[in-house]
Structures are given as C-alpha cells and as structure tokens.
Give the backbone structure.
Amino acid sequence: MVRDIIRFGVIGTGGQANSVHIGGIKRCPWAELVALCDTNEVLLQQRAQEHGIPADRCYRDYTQLLARDDVDAVTIGTPNNMHAPIVIAAAKTGKHVMCEKPIARSAAEAQTMLAACRAAGVRHMTAFTYRFVPAVRFATHLVRSGDIGEVRTLRSRRLQDWGLRAIGWRQVKALAGTGEIGDMMAHRLDYTQAMVGPIVRVSGLLRNFIPERFGPDDQMQVQDVDDWASAIVEFSTGAVGVYESSKICWGMGFYASSPDDLDVHGADGTIVYRMQTPHVLRIGRQGGSLEEVPVPEEYLQPVGGVPGPVDGNPLQTFRYNEIFEFVDAVRRERDCIPSLVDGARTQAVVDAIVQSSDERYWVDVATVS
C-alpha cells in the first residue's frame, strides 16, 4: 500500500533544519509541514511566521508535538545530546523519524535509538545529506558495480576556513559529543562505507587547536572538542582509506566553496569527485588521464523522479533529496537509505577513532547489527 501525504513535525528549527528539512518538505508533493518545535521562543516564532504555521501548532516541548495525532513523521535537528531521547520518544508514539547526524554521542547510545525504532516498527533515517550528491550517488554505483575493479585505496578531505568565530553548541562536548569528526568527517565515513564496505579497523588523531572562539558578542567561548580530525582506516575488503577534516585551514574557503574531495583508486581505474562539480566525475584508467564524465540524469533526480529539487543551485538542491527518500520509504513501507543502522555503524567508527587518538594505537570497530 502506498500512502498519500506524510504529515511532518520538525523538532529543532535552526539553520540546517530550516534550509534542508523544511526546504525539502515544502518541495515534496507527498509531504506537508504541520507543526514546529524549538526551545528558542524567538526562533520558533520567526520560523512559524516564515512558513505560515499557526501558534497552536508551535511548541517548545517536543513531547507536546509528539502527542499530535496529525503528525506522521518528525525530523530532528536539535543539538546532538537531545537526539536519543527525542528519537526514542517519537518511536514510542509511532512517529517515523529522520535524525540529523551524528545521531548520537556514542555507538551505545545509537544502539538504544535503533532498538526503540525497531521495537515500535517505525521507519528510521539518518540525515547523511552527502549520500544524495549526484556525483556521490553515481560514484557509489560505479564502485559497487566493479567499474574500477577492486578498490585498493581512497582519500577523503574536507577543509574549511571557519576563522575564529564560534560554532555554537557544536563546539561544546556536552552538547555535541565530538567536534569536526562528528560534524563533517562522519558524512565521508558514511558514504565511503556505502561504496566500499564496512570499516573494521582505525588509527586516528584528533586535535583541538583553538580552545576558545569569538561569540556574536565578541566574548570568548570555550571549545572543548576537536577542530581537526584524521584517520587511516582498513575496510573489510582489504582496502585502505585516508581521511582529513578541518575547520582551521586558513584561506581554503567556507561551506560549499571549500575543498570537499574524494579520490578512489581501484585495480582497473580511478574515480575523482569534487564537491564544486556535483554533476561531474573524473575517471581515469591505467596509463591514461582523467576524463570528465557527466552524471547521468537518473542520478540527478530524487526518489520518485519529481524534477522540482533539481532546479536551482546544484550545491544546494541535492540536500532536499534526503526528505524525498524519507517520504518515499514511509509511503511505501520500506527501509530508509541511509537508516539509523548506517548512523550507528558510522558512530562506531567515530568512537573507535576517538579511542585510537586518546590511546595512540589501532582500534577494531565494534559491530553494529
């Protein structure tokens, strides 16, 4: 059975949730925005006005939103420390859940969330946005279909110049769990595992180079999480990966203008992805040179083939497609891709890298069922 309209509540209405979650819901013909929740009253009222949500559908307490009978699904874009209690409560009320990454502050916490969703029989999704970049989708297809042969090595880097400005709750360990590794590297750990297979062993190093940052009022705010992260990993296939992610690379740009690269080297060829060209890959063969290959049309479209989200800036439009995936999975009663299983598996890799950095040795990654 295919359901009609999926009615959404959005819990946490900050920048990512407003731009991507609500942006996707409003563009999806099978979704309707019903209710909003945020602990920040001023922000909540601002979002309500922006999106035409009446006051009686706006809440500061997420349990009140979850009590609504006209909400089928929720997206969760709160600080990381609130992900687990909200996901578990949402599952118990029968709501399908899409949770921002990292879904938890530890793999054990992620497992409790996954268990709650399974027990309740609700659909669950991790908002790994970069899975939906057209070039990443196409590269994943090529790797998994054997186009470049068995993968031997890959290199991922995400380098940004954030300056000295504060990063809000993301720079506070009690709220975020980790810093750069959970914020940006987690995306790359996720989609490379989707391409190559599970990461089973890691050697990592994290650093906090800037322990204080300037807040909006020019007052210094403590940062007690990593702002630079690196890892060497072994995949179950025998492939090796090298990752670097940073917010302190001066002059490298910010957000979509900064380097976000992946190079994958197989026995029969190489695939090169650059975020700045999300509709193009470069592919090379032994003895040859890299040649540009356009991403086929099928990888530009969201699930369901509705063309709307393709219109506009390609560095933004792919982000809406995670909502289309979530909605389609709920409507057709199938598993979401990526699900909380993927979120938990990536969190297990993050945990292992943190342990490796702390203890200075290789660490095996815990298995997530």
Observations:
- The chain has two domains: 6-129, 130-304+346-364.
- Residues 198 and 236 are 6 Å apart (CA to CA).
